[in-house]
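Pilot study result, target chain (756 residues):
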Amino acid sequence: MSEFLLGLRLLFGSGRGTRVRFWLMTLGGSLGVCALALVLTIPSILGAHDGRAADRDPQVYAGQKSGQHTLVLERSDPHGSKPFSRVFVARGKDGAAVQPPPGIDELPAPGEVFVSPALRDQLRDEPGLKGLLPGKEKGLIGPSGLTDPNELYAYVGTTRDQLGDDARALKSFGSAHPPTTAVEKSTLDILRFTLAVLVLLPLGVFLSVCAKLSAASRNRRLAALRLLGLSAKGTQRVNAAETVVAAFLGALLGLAEFWLLNQIMARTGLPGLKWYPADGALSASTIAICLIGCTALSWFVGRASARAAATNPLSTRRTAAPRAPRVWGGLLLVTGLGIVIGYCATGLTDNPAQSSGINSLLVPGGVLLTGLGLVMVMPLLSYGIATRLARSGNLALSLAMRRNEVEPGSAMRVVTGLVLLVFSASLAQGVLVEEQQITRSDSPVQEYGLRLSQLSEEQQGKLRDIPAVRADAIVMDPRSDPSKEGGDWQAPALVATCAQLARLTEHAAGCEEGKVLRLQDPNVAESPVKTSTYTMEQDGKRTSMKVRVPEATVLFDGYDVTNLPSPGLLVPPSELPAHALPAAATLVLMSGSDPGTVRDVLDRIGAIAPTADVDPAGINIDGLQQITVIETLLALGMVMGLVIGVAAFLVSVTDRAVERRPQVTALSLIGARARTLRLVQCTQVVLPLAVGLLLALVAGKLAESAYLVTGGGEIFWDGAGVPLLVAAMAGVLVLAVAGTLPLVGRRIDPELIRRD
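Predicted structure:
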């Protein structure tokens, strides 16, 4: 305790510089703790979402549907890029015995509707949605009955005869597992691991940087205490007192910052992800990890940083020869790269490795070892580069490399945060590529089908004019159902020109403009048909339109999931009767398949035709929502990693400049120019950073490929993110140059040498 109190007295009695360093350590630690709390809270936010979805899930009796039971029917339709869910309830004689779902006090009676707040706001903007909610608004669904504040959800009261045969007898609300999850469990595990690499590894480096601020000045002070008779362990405890107090205050401040951030973000939301403030409340485990874990880390870092001054105090005068960094950091990197390269090699064979069994442990282990190896190998790389370049004839380069040769560990503190950011960005890109392969087809286009009977002519025109829509056409249903057996089979017809057909297909051959033709995909079996009959509406009357099927055939290659009929007919628009529309037909729209374009088109469709049923061929709205959530969380992790990496860089560079003022002053007094000194400062940082970034890019792409190979998808080698990463690396180097140039002051203070 006496050493601890001595450390506090030295902290507050050693001048303004020591106090500034203490508050800088506290503020830096608070930033790290805030990021750590955010990472630890994300699973609880997703868990609260899934828990409320499970609590309201209707449970039904198997095979029972009598007048005694309350009936329930669930419907979920896409409204734009979000699901619009409705639960229809018809009370039975057991209505009083069935507990209402969370969020409402009673089951709705016929003609009554309970809606979510977001849906009520949507109804004001889009009155057409009221057609999907027959009845009068009875009240709002409370937060306990909604997964998030933006959810479109409603309970609709109706009668038993209106529900139809799909209704089921309701037993109760609530189940042990949610019907759908915000992020699937396997994906959530991958997401946690990726966020740990994105945030926690740079966070550990950042906290260690904050704990080692002004290491040279503190070591001289500790060496003086050691020479005055304080024991080695006591000297280490004196140093640890400052770091522990700074870490503890920083943890408290960081938790307060997170509380404020949670209140703001919960109300504003993120793209595809919004939550209630209570969902992001700090748990006891999160508070314990932040307070105890960060304080304990600072204690050990403080003791380790003072070990040299405590055991060999005379070495702080820099007369001792520097010890070369140990090679075990390089062994970690070599081991990690060996694992990921081995899995990458299996992608070149006919039987690539799968993420099962021991592979599910080795792949994350290899990625983690690679990331840790990048951290620990930086001193070794800095030392190796410095020893080889220090003998060059260039004055600035020799001065810079001699300093890195003496202090190779400082390179780790300065550049590692930014190096890890580039490495983890590649891994995040691999997670996104893998999820997009799982949740949607790899077709380059996306189709949307809307029933023509649900659209007015004005709506049809607006839908065709959506900017992202590349092509459109109408598919007419024949009078007889082609899916039923027996009777004469009739073919559906695509109403389109040859130009429209070319835009809707990968390849089409044999099309003749203005003629009725057979439409056939060579991969689909042909069906004999002579004529097909279609029902048309003209001036309020229904008429029949018979089309004789010719022998001439158009062969086409369709995309993976398409609304184009095969076998079918290609009917030019000129063949339709004037001012007549098909009574049963589908309007087909086509756009690009990237998630951003799909979300934009679905949102525009929802704004133009809010009550129309949309069939986004081959895509799952829940899957699209999940991709949005994953992208948001990974982007949030990238932002936190960037903030932590840049903060660690700026703090470290500033601290190095302050610590080296005596050396800079000495060089200035013997005639070194300010331009030369700036070049020295820049070279000391930029050269190790450039080498580390290049190594991180290569290691990151290898780790990403190992993940993609074992993920079971079709894409193993993703080069789409390389230009962005290279541009980010160039930006980081520019930032490094800009951050180091102003740190050589113009004012020369000889007093700094006397103090040294």
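One observation from the pilot: Residues 16-55 form the longest helix (40 residues). A full batch analysis is planned for the follow-on phase.
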